Amino acid sequence: MASLTSRVERIARSEPERRAVACGEQRIDYGTLWAQANAFAAFLRNSGIVDGDRVALILPNGIEAIVACYGSWLAGAVIVPLNAQARARDLEPWLRHCEARCVVHESGHGDAESALAALELPPLRVATGTGEATPGTIAWQTAVETMATPAATTAEPADLAMILYTSGTTGAPKGVMLGHAGLAANVDSIIDYLELDRNDSIVSVLPFYYSYGASVLHTHLAVGGFLVIEPNLVFPHMIVETMARERVSGFSGVPSTFLLLLNRVPLADHDLSSLRYVTQAGGAMAPATTQRLQQALPQVRIFIMYGQTEATARLTWLPPQKLVEKSGAVGIPIPGVELVVRREDGQLAEPFEVGEVHARGPNLMLGYWRNPDATAAVLSEGWLKTGDMGHLDSDGYLFLSGRRSDMIKTGAHRVHPKDVEEVIAELPAIAETAVVGIDDDTLGQVIKAFIVVSTEQSLTVNQVKAHCRDRLAAYKIPKHIEFVDALPKTASGKIRRAELIATTEPREVS
Amino acid sequence: MDHKKQIKKFVLENYLFTDDESALADSDSLIRNGIVDSTGMLELIGHLEETYSIKVENAEMIPANFDSIDTIGAFVENKLSA
Predict the structure, then answer these.
(1) List of chain A residues whose C-beta atoms are within 8 Å of the C-beta of residue B62
(2) In this predicted model, what pLDDT tens digit does every residue of A200-222 receive, in sequence order?
(3) For chain A, which domains are there?
(4) Which of A85, A161, A344, A509 has the highest count of CB atoms within 10 angstroms of its CB?
(5) Angle CA(A401)–CA(A310)–CA(A157) in degrees, nearest 5?
(6) How far apart are CA A331 and CA A310, in angstroms?
(7) pTM of the complete model
(8) What are the residues of chain B with a beta carbon less than 8 Å away from any beta carbon of chain A?
């Protein structure tokens, strides 16, 4: 199976002037992308980076992030794309845990700089952007101007390619290890069912440091497609204008992406005749929203999908022609993947019987980085325990019905309640706190914190939010806060989160 | 209180959770600094429409109008004087 780097190389050699990526005013073709990746690889090797070293990327979506990714792979390194919105309290333990030998970040990224300053063994630092470079930091432009000789190493399929951290500071960080072969296998499966080819192009709004955004990136580069990067969804109509102007054939989003577009942009006013397909993953989208999307874009094939970072990205897809017949399903396994639903005792569940979804295939992770206990808890005899509950119907279509864990899905983000609870608990007035996800019409879920304040102490909602804002990524700040006298608990003292969620009226404002 | 000050007060209270005016310069980018995201921008525009009885058209929802307290203040002044 051809590696992702070799696919880009093939296109760069045969069609160097073929357009690859646009980001704002910047445009880059495959030849230049490949040359810059090779230059960055040469820079890394000249700087002492060796096979298997970790190169952490704290970058927003952009050409630099793509060059740094492919260049690191060419140098034989493992990339660790970190959430560029994360604060120093998350970045520092991740950098320590993966023992990053090189870190690429935006100049002026205060949290990246704070996290780096805290490390006893400073890694090689490369800063993108035009801001003033910190002493000891190499400018990106310098790193990609290195005289490029052909890359000295070629990663083997079995080698580790990427580590993606899926949780924050609680306990041992969980870094999902993805191999070159797994990445290539998942890319091939996705290309197959989306029928992607060199004529495809896409507006990309999903962060590359999440598995969904990464899969959009790598699938398009693998076929010689064209990727148009939009940095955010703050002005939804501008996304649609870009789709129309660039005549793109594809668009990928999470449920909140499509709700924003449907609610804020009169799609019929834009010429989207070039749009061939859209994909949706990252949490359940209400069938009513899917119907609205299909009505707004009648010529477009809508692919509902499901996956996990632990499976590189993708596990299932719903063929667009089954959208109505199998409404609410996340589809059938992608090529190469097997899915089963198991009971608590490990036995296979009957059709329509709810159990835990297990998956097997070449796209599964290699494990969690330096965390054998967490790995053993989910990987066993070639199968991944997804933690997702659901059932298969008699035709083998998967329907999901929730998760075993308390993880909150808000927009495109995953938030572990503990990450937020730990920060709130640092306030002196806090006796105890519990954080849950409550339903939200746009974001799927938003974060709500229930707080018990110590006797004779006082605390305001804004004090809690300001404290969180200083320490957490913006999407982790609780939208709602409720002060309560006590938290509901089981006899053994475990917080009854379901009860807290049930006490919250939809659309409560606080 | 002029419009710009009112808008800044709203942004400070709702996105930075403070009344400390020094927490945000009037020229600071609200988007690049992660102060306002997609849903935050919708809330902010809803607030402006309600408070100043104005209608913000889709074509007006661009960074040039909404990226800082300065640009939002100027945009609102223009709308009110139109």
Answers:
(1) 235, 238
(2) 999 999 999 999 999 999 999 99
(3) 4-19+27-155 (3.40.50.12780), 183-404 (3.40.50.12780), 409-501 (3.30.300.30)
(4) A161
(5) 145
(6) 18
(7) 0.93
(8) 13, 16-18, 31, 34-39, 41-42, 58-59, 61-63, 66
